[in-house]
């Protein structure tokens, strides 16, 4: 049964904005989160996606009929509550409504996610419902704020939003993690990164960013890997590695401070230790890969120069710092084909990764790109990539090649860090994980 709007012609109010309506008669629309009753008085906890509100329904005030209607409400039934709101610090959300009318829109069937603890597998199978719980809505609201903050940051700095394609004819980040598809008889891949197209866009527009989904068929079942994740990628003509890092630290500081400013309620729901975020301000420390290897060996790791860091290594390195740390100048042999070798030491590249604190690992990968045609051709051959697919990319080095740099930030890893989550699966409404894509 879908109910009709009652005769009360009132604006509905979002629960998060109740503070603006204290003492007024208003209507809230939402779903029943929980209910307690003592025969004559009933407490309805309602959620609307922006917060929780406790409605107090007194039989004496609303009459038998409305009280009986409220009494049928099951968990997750949809409803409209009308009444006068006032501040009540002891109540969830800090406000309470003295209900004058309850309109039942739909009585929910027995809801599978109750208020007791459920295992993660049970919840993941029901992700379409799990996202309704206060913790999950808090995370998704922070995610939304982070996305807006990135866009505002770039907009304020005159960057052009230039979207990259999702269907691509060639690999950007190595051939082992490609999702292949049939493009009308031609082989194509889902994008691993918009970078190569961003480089073309930067040569056209100067400073650009793109923000879209990216795909990696990684055989990794870890708390940091998704098969489909969203990446903010920026590309700047005439930027060197140092300018690139400066932009990144300004961006990350801006985003963290925005979340602190605008998501206090959400961070409270998540029980995030805010003191760990308050000091996230530029400048961030910078260490070379070689210095990072020294840190590992001092910590007793016996780590050979030339290998890539795994998650435990990143945790050891980042634990030395109270804010994100740049690790720059990785060995050329372990980095992507497009990274520019350091002219002072070609064994390493002018690339930098940003490691988040508290063991959250790498959130940004980036660096300066090769701008020399012959060297880029050589690298493509060394990496056994099909040169024909990269002719357009090589054109960027034929016609007005310029030094340029860029980076990609993984949105979900950043959300996990800022929210203080144990696992990346909660950072996106519908995560795509190894062997798991339902619902
Ligand atoms: O270091 P990556 O592979 O860099 C690139 O793709 C560059 N082409 C970006 C650029 O310079 N425009 O990936 C960048 C970031 C990582 O630091 C990480 O945060 C995230 O993307 N990332 C993943 N996040 C979730 N699941 C995965 N499987 C990820 N792989 C990378």
TrEMBL record:
Record-level GO BP terms: asparaginyl-tRNA aminoacylation
GO annotations of cellular component type: cytoplasm
Residue intervals of the Aminoacyl-transfer RNA synthetases class-II family profile domain: 140-439
Catalytic activity, EC: 6.1.1.22
Predominant location: cytoplasm
Entry-linked InterPro entries: Aa-tRNA-synt_II, aa-tRNA-synth_II, aa-tRNA-synth_II/BPL/LPL, Asn-tRNA-ligase, Asp/Asn-tRNA-synth_IIb, NA-bd_OB-fold, NA-bd_OB_tRNA
SUPFAM superfamilies: Class II aaRS and biotin synthetases (SSF55681), Nucleic acid-binding proteins (SSF50249)
Entry keywords, A to Z: Aminoacyl-tRNA synthetase, ATP-binding, Cytoplasm, Ligase, Nucleotide-binding, Protein biosynthesis
PROSITE patterns in UniProt: AA_TRNA_LIGASE_II
Subcellular location field: Cytoplasm
Keyword Protein biosynthesis: yes
Origin: domain of life: Bacteria
GO terms, molecular function: asparagine-tRNA ligase activity; ATP binding; catalytic activity, acting on a protein; nucleic acid binding; transferase activity
Enzyme class: ligase
Record field: catalytic activity: tRNA(Asn) + L-asparagine + ATP = L-asparaginyl-tRNA(Asn) + AMP + diphosphate + H(+)
Quaternary state and interactors: Homodimer.
Family per record: Belongs to the class-II aminoacyl-tRNA synthetase family.
The protein, known as: Asparagine--tRNA ligase
Species assigned in the record: Anaerosporomusa subterranea
Gene assigned in the entry: asnS
């Amino acid at each position: 049964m879908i109910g009709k709007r009652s005769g009360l012609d009132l604006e509905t109010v979002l629960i998060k904005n109740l503070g603006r309506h204290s003492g007024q008669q208003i209507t809230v629309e939402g779903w029943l989160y929980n209910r307690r009753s003592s025969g004559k008085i009933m407490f309805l906890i309602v959620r609307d996606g922006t917060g929780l509100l406790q409605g107090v329904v007194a039989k004496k005030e609303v009459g038998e009929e409305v009280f009986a209607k409220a009494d049928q409400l099951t968990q997750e039934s949809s409803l409209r509550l009308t009444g006068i709101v006032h501040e009540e610090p002891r109540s969830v959300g800090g406000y309470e409504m003295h209900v004058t009318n309850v309109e039942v829109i739909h009585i929910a069937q027995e809801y599978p996610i109750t208020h007791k603890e459920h295992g993660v597998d049970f919840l993941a199978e029901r992700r379409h419902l799990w996202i309704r719980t206060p913790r999950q809505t808090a995370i998704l609201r922070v995610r939304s704020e982070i996305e807006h903050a990135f866009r505002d940051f770039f907009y304020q700095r005159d960057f052009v939003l230039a979207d990259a394609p999702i269907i691509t004819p060639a690999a950007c980040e190595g051939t082992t993690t490609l999702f292949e598809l049939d493009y009308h008889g031609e082989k194509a891949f889902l994008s691993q990164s918009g970078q190569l197209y961003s480089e073309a866009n930067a040569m056209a527009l100067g400073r650009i960013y793109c923000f879209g989904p990216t795909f990696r068929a990684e055989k990794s079942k870890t708390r940091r890997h998704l098969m489909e994740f969203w990446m903010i990628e920026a590309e700047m003509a005439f930027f060197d590695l140092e300018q690139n890092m400066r932009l990144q630290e300004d961006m990350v500081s801006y985003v963290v401070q925005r979340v602190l400013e605008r998501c206090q309620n959400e961070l409270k729901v998540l029980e995030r230790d805010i003191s760990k975020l308050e000091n996230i301000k530029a400048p961030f420390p910078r260490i070379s890969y070689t210095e990072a290897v020294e840190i590992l060996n001092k910590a007793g790791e016996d780590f050979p120069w030339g290998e890539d860091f795994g998650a435990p290594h990143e945790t050891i390195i980042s634990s030395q710092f109270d804010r994100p740390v740049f690790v720059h100048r990785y060995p050329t042999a372990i980095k992507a084909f497009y990274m520019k070798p350091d002219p002072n030491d070609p064994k390493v590249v002018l690339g930098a990764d940003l490691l988040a604190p508290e063991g959250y690992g790498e959130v940004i990968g980036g660096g300066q790109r090769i701008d020399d045609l012959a060297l880029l051709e050589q690298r493509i051959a060394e990496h056994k990539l099909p040169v024909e697919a990269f002719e357009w990319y090589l054109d960027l080095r034929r016609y007005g090649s310029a030094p340029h740099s860029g980076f990609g930030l993984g949105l979900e890893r950043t959300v996990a860090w800022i929210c203080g989550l144990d696992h990346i699966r909660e950072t996106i409404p519908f995560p795509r994980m190894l062997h798991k894509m339902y619902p």
